[in-house]
């Protein structure tokens, strides 16, 4: 008896070891358990499990001793389907069910009908079913059968079967947990490795402990090389400065979402969004950080582009406002200057009236220069002329000296025989004034501003625009100020960018210079270093000097012909009459386009239409087209407070239209009228 008990004990010990080894897979557990149960307790056995819906699955695995009929499996597999509900409830509740020394009637209750005849000999004489229960849950049952006639199960057999079932249930529970964990790990590993975002794990000091394939691709390095490397090596200067604080935040258990710039292994940069969270161990202690990293380089580029578009819209809005102000102001200046000129011409030479009229004319000229600067900033509308750079610099000398102040030494270095350039003289003066103002601000304690001019020949590829080549005149404006760092240089020409702390600093100085130069067909280059100073080089395309037509004195600008003046401001319309009539012209004035059309229908035959461009109801161009439909030979001269560059984008003028810009004086008006009458369109 002791020997049998010891054998059973040893067998159970071996079973425990075998189940422990097999608990990584549920199928292995079931196979080991049924084989051991059949060998230790009964002639054959099998296990049937409960599905998630509460019903039994088919018999999963079966083992039978030698010479045991194959139909034993069918018998055990359907055992729970044929046993009465009371026995089944007891089995689910944890009780062991035993049928021993079954007679023919009992056997037929448990055996499938198709086997009643085959098994009528009573080859299955005893059945034992033990529940598999783990953590209070019914997992299924272990069924055993004996085939010896009259065989029974002793109490020792029943206890041994229970122990086998108990060990099996525990191992099965473990195996299922392992499989669920493995499935979960596989699922999360698949997510981590297939996500489009980078997954980056590092320890308390920022050293990489894990990275998925996408993170390695983003950094341009293999995963093997990335492990053990510090995050610091992949951050730009700003990111490195903030790294210690961010690691400290993780140690405090705080998560954070932020944007930063990473430097890839090849030196290129990419913008990312970091969603960083503390990484905890099993005891809940912070052992590092886990970051989800998204590449947002394109988003940042789009955002910067949107910011630049917004700035351009602001510039465009300011330009429209500046153009509108300049237009209305030019109309007023035309009346003021023209009236003053009429007064001066009628006054006694040397009289107070003449002196006051000339003062008014000078003030109006200053106002015209101001509106010209407004248009130069707002709409980049240059009127190109052949400009002598030495004459330009000589004329701007006094302006620049006043702008710089006595604490700054202004010097000029101008080469001889400079080529002529094609540009707007007023805009070039504005560009020089802006550069001087910037230099003055950079030399708060004094310094030297040097303006140099020389000729140069640029080969293809010598400028930022690789297609630019040929002869250029270089204007170089250099100061000994504070200079700029690389970050400031990269934004220097952006509208509204400024490093000045003073209130009202708009950041439009260099942006305006940039626009003036490029609208002149030129190029600009900035050289600057902190503590050394700044040099701005302007490359203006050279133009051969041409003979300008001589300017005739006013007394020689007399003419003849009928001029139809169309101007919606009555004061300005009458002023034009006062300026033209003494020169020999017949003048008819209309204050709106409809009245001008009526004059022609009434039989008027003007030689020249002098019309404002922007008028209510009908533009000057529309009026000219309508009148020319009846009189094709009618000559036309447009006048406007806007420049041609401002009007052209609006479709008001074609390239062949002649325009006199307000404010004008008698000389410029008579010259333009004489030229228009002398040229057929």
TrEMBL record:
Q: Which reaction does it catalyse?
A: ATP + protein L-histidine = ADP + protein N-phospho-L-histidine
- Per UniProt, residues of the PAS domain are 184-254
Q: Where is the Histidine kinase domain?
A: 324-544
Predominant subcellular localization, coarse grouping: membrane
Task: Kindly indicate whether the keyword Kinase belongs to this entry.
Answer: yes
| EC class (word) | transferase
Instruction: Quote the InterPro entries the UniProt record gives.
Output: CheY-like_superfamily, GAF, GAF-like_dom_sf, HATPase_C_sf, HATPase_dom, His_kinase_dom, HisK_dim/P_dom, HisK_dim/P_sf
Location of 4-aspartylphosphate modifications: 612
SUPFAM superfamilies per the UniProt record, alphabetical: ATPase domain of HSP90 chaperone/DNA topoisomerase II/histidine kinase, CheY-like, GAF domain-like, Homodimeric domain of signal transducing histidine kinase, PYP-like sensor domain (PAS domain)
Query: Which Gene3D superfamilies does the record match to this protein?
Result: 1.10.287.130, 3.30.450.40, 3.40.50.2300, Histidine kinase-like ATPase, C-terminal domain, PAS domain
Localization of this protein? Cell membrane
Quote the EC number.
2.7.13.3
Q: Where is the PAC domain?
A: 256-308
**Keywords for this protein:** ATP-binding, Kinase, Nucleotide-binding, Phosphoprotein, Transferase, Two-component regulatory system
The Response regulatory domain covers 562-677
One Pfam match, given by its short name, reads PAS
Protein known as: histidine kinase
